[in-house]
């Protein structure tokens, strides 16, 4: 899928996520892009992948049931 923004066109790459200790890791299955975020120290490490791609992903912790969360 291609995404257009401000006249530029980007490939859309969805990232898979996993947790390793204090690190949340987002990894692209289409290229070499990897983003690691330490949720305790807020340190972030990035391995560049395809510079013409828009990378996105989210982390849903195991056991979370969105329909049962009280947001009030």
Provide structural commentary.
This protein has strands spanning 2-5, 8-20, 23-28, 34-38, 44-47, 53-56. It is an all-beta fold and 72 residues long. It has a domain at 15-50. Strands 1, 2, 3, 4, 5 and 6 form a 6-stranded mixed beta sheet that branches. It is globular, with a radius of gyration of 15 Å. The termini are far apart.
Brief summary:
This protein has 72 residues and is mainly β. The protein is 0% helix and 50% strand. Strand 3 and strand 4 form a beta hairpin.
Query: Could you tell me the mean pLDDT?
Result: 80
**How would you classify the helix and strand content by structural class?**
mainly beta
Shape: globular
The strand count comes to: 6
What count of helical segments does DSSP give?
0
Largest sheet: 6 strands, mixed
Helix proportion: under 10%
Strand content: over 45%
Distance between the termini: 37 Å
Helix and strand string, N-terminal first? Answer: EEEEEE
How would you describe this structure in keywords?
72 residues; six-stranded mixed sheet; 6 strands
Explain the layout of strands and helices.
Layout: E1 2-5, E2 8-20, E3 23-28, E4 34-38, E5 44-47, E6 53-56
Parallel strand pairs: 2-6
Antiparallel strand pairs: 1-2, 2-3, 3-4, 4-5
């Amino acid at each position: 899928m291609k995404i257009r923004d401000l006249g530029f066109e980007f490939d859309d790459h969805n990232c898979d996520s996993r947790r390793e200790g204090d690190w949340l890791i987002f990894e692209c299955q289409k290229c070499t892009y990897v983003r690691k975020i330490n949720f305790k120290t807020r340190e972030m490490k990035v391995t560049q992948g395809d510079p013409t791609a828009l990378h996105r992903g989210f982390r849903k912790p195991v056991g979370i049931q969105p329909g049962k969360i009280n947001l009030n």
